[in-house]
# Entry
Amino acid sequence: MTIVSKRIFPALTVQVLPTPVVLLYCWSVLSLTTNFLKKFVDMWVMNLQEIKRVIVSQREEMEEKFRGGVIVKREPEISRLKSFLAFPNILVVLGIRRCGKSIFSWQIFKNSLFGYINFDDERLYGIKAGDLDLVLQAFYELYGNIDCVVLDEPQNVIGWELFVNRLRRTKKVVVTGSNSKLLSGELATHLTGRYVSFTLMPFSFREYLGYKRLIVSKEDFYSTQKVAELKRSLVEYMKVGGLPEAYLFGREILVRIYGDIVEKDILRRAKIKRKETFRELTKYLISNVALEFTIRKLSNLLEVKDVHTVRNWLSALENSYLFFILERYSPKLKQQVIAPKKIYC
# Structure
């Protein structure tokens, strides 16, 4: 016979039980505990393995672009940008969706061993700030001890700023984002004076010629054939624009990129309530590029009573790099504020 304490086994209502019953009870508790721990560990390992699969898949995709695609040397001087990565600074690369930020960040660390992950991936949906240590562990297990890390679109993870703030103390970190608000809020609070931001624009005409592998020399401007070829290239560039994917898939891809910017980068994140009215605003602005406008006129046109709402919408469009607003020059600040403005896409 075995004496069993109620404090240890509160579910037992008797104090004296046969040894086999006690052993059976203990075995049940131990089995449940073991199964719980196993499921917890399996879940943790599964998440780590899934993250590793995503990292490897994304790297293979990027490496394929470098092998099979045309990689253009961008006009910003990479060596100068790399100097900003001296510990403990972070380099933040901003720009419109699909302008080549990921490729550019790879060019920065071209001859280095680095970890890369793009959080704008449905396989990483639901990842939390507490899981970011698993990302770092995945890098270590895949590549060993790395000194450089590229985090693509990390704003999809709430609370990512604290992780980056810790990471920058021992690593060279490049962060890319499609919204200038990436530099506001928590990032600005934790990293004041510890990051350098840089805006990557779509291809310039010079970069477009590089993509088309058209080499231009001074002598070419005296050649009728070369001048005609340059004019044709300029007309095509002005029609298609500077987003690299448009040269591969045609202008149709621009519609999808535009939709992603409006739906994912603005409506979803800014939590705009009057979604249809906002879509009408973007269509109107695209149809009236380079024409003058005032916020009051836009407000009346859209039947939005509060002009501050329209002003906030315009700010969201600027933050996503879809539009740029140009103010009329005046030495008087008041005149700049009240004068009509122009918008460019």
Summary: The chain has three domains: 68-202, 204-240, 252-345.
